[in-house]
Design goal:
By secondary structure, the protein is of the alpha+beta class. Helix content is 42%, strand content 19%. It has ten helices and ten strands. The strands form two sheets. Strands 1, 2, 3, 4, 5, 6 and 10 form a seven-stranded mixed β-sheet that branches. A hairpin with an 8-residue loop joins strand 8 and strand 9. Helix 2 runs parallel beside helix 9, helix 3 runs parallel beside helix 9 and helix 8 runs antiparallel to helix 9.
């Protein structure tokens, strides 16, 4: 079913419930019946968003396409929003449904006929978001993994192709000032740098991927300089070293790697530390990690 058809059906059902004075007595029942029918459509739409965004960014590199989109953005009908804002509306609207229904529930009398339907619809909406997020996360994992380029077969760790959850991804700098696209999957950390092959952007794996069960992370205070992973030489002597952390392998596993990384700011650094430590703790405790991907860019 097309995403537009889904919303058209919802609007039609809501309009049929509207009284002559403009009020509506039943909302929860409509959502309770409608939400399950659009689950597959939402999964397909949201799972394809990353590929769609990648394609859109590629097309924008063409001057004619970029000029056309710019003129559309400047037109009154677009409200100064770009194309991606409109393409992302279904996903952003989905996550607002539980809040909308909860607000309606708070204003619904305890003996109202629609109250129980509202309670059930909220549960359905929240579960639906979890399912869509999980399936979207799996698709994102596959998208990035398929974009990896390996310089050495030793980098092809068997865990990489098994990953279903991308916990965190974003840009960090190494001790030479090189920009790295870092991916923290549920079971393995992969550091890459973006390169272009035949006009397509791919992620070239940098160094050996580190399994989370062999990973340790250290918070480096501002100004810290160590022989392993020093930022000396990447910056001028007058510049302090801020927002840095270090990842390394335990007990010499994975080649005894150690890599110092610099985040964009203190907030990004804290987010990376939180996600890395959470992944390590979950692995140690055998817990299932949160299925939500975090982008720290």
């Amino acid at each position: 079913m097309h995403i537009y058809v889904c919303f058209s059906e919802l609007i039609d059902k809501l309009r049929l419930q509207r009284n002559q004075d403009g009020t509506t007595d039943v909302i929860g029942k409509i959502f309770l019946e409608w939400l399950p029918t659009v689950l597959d459509t939402y999964i397909t739409y949201c799972s394809n968003q990353l590929a769609a965004k990648t394609l859109l960014d590629e097309k924008k590199q063409t001057k004619q396409v970029d000029d056309f989109l710019q003129r559309c953005r400047e037109s009154p009908f677009s409200r100064k929003l770009d194309l991606w804002n409109f393409l992302d509306v279904p996903r952003s609207r989905l996550v607002k449904y539980p809040l909308l229904l909860k607000n309606i529930l708070m204003l619904t009398p305890g003996d109202h006929e629609d109250r129980q339907s509202l309670v059930e619809a909220i549960k359905v909406a929240e579960n639906m978001i979890k399912v869509v997020d999980r399936r979207t996360g799996e698709t994102k994992c596959l998208h990035y993994i398929n974009s990896f380029e390996y310089l050495d077969d030793k980098q092809r760790h068997p865990l990489i192709n098994e990953q279903k959850v991308l916990l965190c991804g974003g840009l960090l700098k190494n001790n030479k000032g090189m920009k790295l696209h870092v991916f923290l999957f549920e079971e393995i950390l992969v550091m890459t740098r973006m390169v272009t092959r035949n006009g397509n952007k791919v992620y070239q794996v940098h160094r050996q991927p580190i399994p989370v069960d062999q990973l340790d992370v250290e918070d480096l205070s501002d100004g810290t300089v160590k022989s392993s992973g020093s930022f000396r030489g990447a910056f001028t002597n007058n510049q302090t070293y801020k927002h840095t952390l270090r990842v390394h392998t335990l007990n010499g596993n994975g080649g005894g790697q150690s890599c110092s990384l610099q985040a964009n700011d203190e907030h990004d650094k804290k987010q990376w530390l939180l996600q890395l430590r959470s992944a390590i703790n979950s692995m140690e405790n055998g817990n299932t990690t949160d299925m939500t991907m975090q982008s720290i860019v």
